[in-house]
Specification:
Blueprint: E1 5-6, E2 27-28, E3 39-45, H1 63-71, E4 73-79, H2 84-93, H3 126-131, E5 136-142, E6 168-172, E7 184-186, E8 189-191, H4 203-219, E9 227-232, H5 244-248, H6 258-272, H7 296-330, E10 336-342, H8 359-362, H9 369-374, H10 390-396, H11 409-412, E11 413-419, E12 429-431, E13 435-436, H12 440-448
Parallel strand pairs: 1-2, 3-9, 3-10, 4-12, 4-13, 5-6, 5-9
Antiparallel strand pairs: 4-11, 6-7, 7-8, 10-11
Helix pairs in contact: 4-7, 6-10
């Protein structure tokens, strides 16, 4: 350590003489990251099933996520908690969700230990740890880690992103939001979207633009200072919102139904080595209708709902690709440790028939085929809060049973991609060992050569 710097709390090592010529100044040592320390980027998808990314056997095009997998590792045995908030708390603390008070989502707080919705402050977030190590820390997109009763303008703000080690935040605090008219917060203040849907607004490109700006703001001043970014899309959670041209790319591709999707994805997963060659496909779920027994109107509506979902996923992948390309332009990509995960399996919250108003599902209001069919041309646009039927959910979790909110593997097994070209020699390989979302924090600390602190903020 040079003489002109000293650790906080240590004695002043300089010299204070009568005049400047016989004095030597010194300054408190700043939090400075180790030379060459990598950036860390979490890319957290929402409600994305094991069989929905192209590199996991899906027929949906996800070329940019596939490229990350080709540049790094795919995991075939990664597990989450089957729900948003609990999984996300694991990803940021490295601790079990019950230890974090999140046995359920924040809105499901039960007022008992392990399920009160309040993540203890002693359960340090990765952002808090890396902030002490000289990193910039950014959270972008979905949060869903603040107790529901503390998300209003009355606060308290200590469990908002800026209260948990993130220097900047742009996104939404709840579990989902409208993709064209989102409920946005910048830092600790509610803000309005900068454009309307008519002017081309959609949340995903907005999040990517803000993420790029945060990184650029710091890198142009301190190019060697690493960042940790927690980037969480609203996709693929309902509402499945995407400009029509993206959904139209998939016209007719799902007319064969969800069982055909399962068979296709299953065969592809074996080819890719994502599942063992002797794997048996789980049975057709008894709660899922047989596609061939549906009326022509039902098949037409449900196929369109899946086209919209597929377009939404490809659209999301496209903009994630823009963020990755930006890192390449800055020369940061090679030394960025990127982890891609979903918070749980595909969601069944559209019920057996899908919906153009997800609120119906949560209030047990029956769906009306005639009404939903009348909306078919507008599904994916700002008019509806739509979700596909759970036949597609089951297909999206191929080869597993069931879905989000349940502890079958369809709810808890998720895609996981890890890429760090400068730090990992392996390319395009598959790892089959058991892993869980709690393993992300200790893996990052291990890769960075950082020991977990014994105390956080005292």
């Amino acid at each position: 350590m040079p003489l002109n710097e000293y650790k906080s709390g240590a004695a002043f090592p300089g010299v204070i003489g009568r005049t400047a010529d016989v004095s030597t100044p010194a300054w408190p040592e700043p939090n400075r990251a180790a030379e060459g320390a990598p950036n860390v980027l979490y890319l957290v998808l929402d409600d994305t099933g094991f069989g929905q990314l192209g590199c996991y056997g899906s027929p949906i095009a996800t070329p940019h996520l596939d490229a990350l997998a080709a540049d790094g590792l795919r995991y075939s045995n990664m597990h989450t908690t089957a729900l948003c908030s609990p999984s996300r708390s694991c990803m940021l603390t490295g601790r079990n969700h019950h230890s974090n008070g999140l046995a359920c989502i924040t809105e499901g707080s039960m007022g008992y230990p392990g399920s009160n919705g309040y993540i203890p402050f002693e359960n340090g977030f990765l952002s808090e740890i890396l902030l002490q190590k000289g990193y910039n820390t950014y959270a972008v997109g979905k949060w869903h880690l603040t107790p529901a009763e503390a998300t209003s303008a009355a606060g308290p703000y200590d469990r908002w992103p800026l209260g948990r080690g993130f220097e900047r935040f742009y996104g939404f605090l709840g579990g989902d939001t409208h993709q064209y008219y989102p409920e946005l917060v910048r830092d600790n203040t509610q803000v309005e979207p900068e454009k309307t849907p008519e002017q081309g607004y959609h949340l995903t490109p907005d999040l990517v633009e803000k993420a790029k700006a945060m990184i650029a703001d710091a890198k142009q001043v301190a190019p060697n200072k690493p960042f940790f970014m927690y980037f969480c899309t609203g996709a693929m959670h309902a509402p499945h919102h995407v400009p029509k041209e993206w959904a139209d790319k998939y016209k007719g591709q799902f007319d064969d139904g969800w069982d055909a999707y399962r068979e296709t994805a299953f065969a592809r997963q074996k080819e890719l080595g994502i599942i063992p060659p002797d794997t048996t496909l789980s049975r057709h779920d008894p709660d899922v209708q047989d596609w061939n027994t549906l009326s022509a109107d039902e098949r037409k509506l449900y196929a369109r709902m899946m086209e919209v979902f597929a377009g939404f996923l490809e659209h999301t992948d496209h903009y994630i690709g823009e963020l990755i390309e930006f890192l390449k332009e800055l020369g940061e990509y090679e030394n960025t440790l990127i982890m891609v995960i979903s918070d749980n399996g595909a969601s069944s919250e559209g019920g057996p028939t899908g919906s153009v108003n997800e609120g119906k599902f949560f209030n047990n209001v029956p769906e009306n085929l005639e009404q939903n069919l009348a909306a078919i041309d507008d599904i994916g646009g700002p008019k509806y809060f739509n979700h596909y039927p759970w036949g597609w959910t089951h297909a999206g979790n191929t080869p597993f049973r069931r879905w989000k909110r349940e502890t079958y593997r369809g709810g808890t097994s998720d895609p996981f991609i890890l890429s760090w070209p400068k730090g990992i020699n392996a390319r395009g390989e598959i790892r089959s060992q058991y892993a869980h979302a709690i393993d992300m924090v200790p893996t990052v600390l291990d890769a960075l050569g950082i020991e977990a602190p014994t105390t956080i903020r005292g």
